[in-house]
Design a protein that fits this description.
The chain is mainly alpha-helical and about 270 residues long. Helices cover about 60% and strands about 0% of the residues. It has a single domain, classed as Serine Threonine Protein Phosphatase 5, Tetratricopeptide repeat, CATH 1.25.40. It is built from 14 helices and two strands, in the order E-H-H-H-H-H-H-H-H-H-H-H-H-H-E-H. It has a two-stranded antiparallel sheet with strand order 1-2.
Length: about 270
């Protein structure tokens, strides 16, 4: 199957998120977060009660400060850290990602940015026994963020702000504090998670191209294209191209076949007989 290439615009992310949080901010000792072990509890009633309280807290119209949300995410990180059974880990990843659905718009993007900042800050502390459950959490956040955008009818402003978060943190080209393993994983699952969201309620008779016709895929790929153009890491650049030239984009009807593009370029370059 021929690979595809989607053309995106070349917007650069603005920087609405505080640089201060990327320095060594004192987020306190984990013992300051009493909900940590309750969220990681193996008994579901305890975990559900704690999650419901957290959702009520986050759904308020109160504007949360970035430092406040960073502290919250430090606690949530360790809730995942302490979860020790596969089924509990899977449920907790789903539950933490579901927090994206209750946030007011004014708090949503700061909360999302704080998630990625804490993941990046704590990532290198993960050992081989814990890293897989955090890869799952990253996957859930990529997927649930797409689902929230869908719930907002793929609103242009929401997508623009979503892209700002991704370019500022998870897919930032310049920040050495973002581990490459996070970049690699996000790039690996980006199209998979988008496809899951768009085709979630697909009927057998539904045409895939028609379903994706309503989705601004080109705009959603802007953070990937920006990373591809701005990174000095050849492996990261190759992973970006695997996304931007993925055959799925042809199946979705949002990309042209590279073979056709190359033929057109060759025709444009030919100057005739001399």
């Amino acid at each position: 199957m021929a690979s595809g290439k989607v053309k995106t615009s070349k917007k650069k992310a603005s920087t609405p998120y505080s640089e201060a949080s990327e320095a060594s901010v004192d987020l306190g000792n984990i013992s300051a977060y009493p909900f940590i072990k309750k969220l990681a509890a193996n008994d579901r009633p305890t975990r559900d009660e704690t999650l419901d309280s957290l959702k009520r807290f986050l759904s308020t119209k109160k504007a949360f400060g970035e430092l406040e949300l960073l502290k919250l995410w430090k606690g949530l990180f360790f809730s995942m850290w302490f979860s020790d059974r596969p089924r509990t880990q899977q449920r907790l990843a789903d539950e933490l990602a579901s927090l994206l659905f209750v946030l007011q718009e004014d708090n949503y993007f700061v909360f999302l940015a704080c998630f990625w900042k804490i993941m990046a800050a704590e990532w290198l502390a993960l050992d081989k026994h814990r890293v897989d459950k955090f890869y799952l959490l990253l996957r859930r956040y990529v997927g649930y963020a797409f689902e929230r955008l869908q719930k907002e009818n793929w609103d242009e402003k929401w997508i623009e702000k979503h892209n700002e978060v991704m370019q500022k943190v998870a897919l930032n080209a310049d920040n050495a504090k973002i581990p490459d393993s996070i970049r690699y994983h996000v790039l690996e699952i980006y199209l998979e998670e988008l496809e899951k969201v768009v085709l979630k309620n697909q009927d057998e008779e539904d045409d895939v191209k028609e379903l994706f016709a309503e989705v601004p895929v080109s705009e959603l790929l802007e953070p990937v294209e920006a990373l591809s153009e701005e990174t000095n890491n050849k492996i990261v650049q190759e992973r970006c191209l695997e996304v931007l030239e993925n055959p799925l984009l042809i199946e979705w009807g949002v990309a042209e076949e590279l073979e056709e593009e190359q033929e057109e370029e060759e025709e444009d370059e030919w100057e005739g007989f001399t």
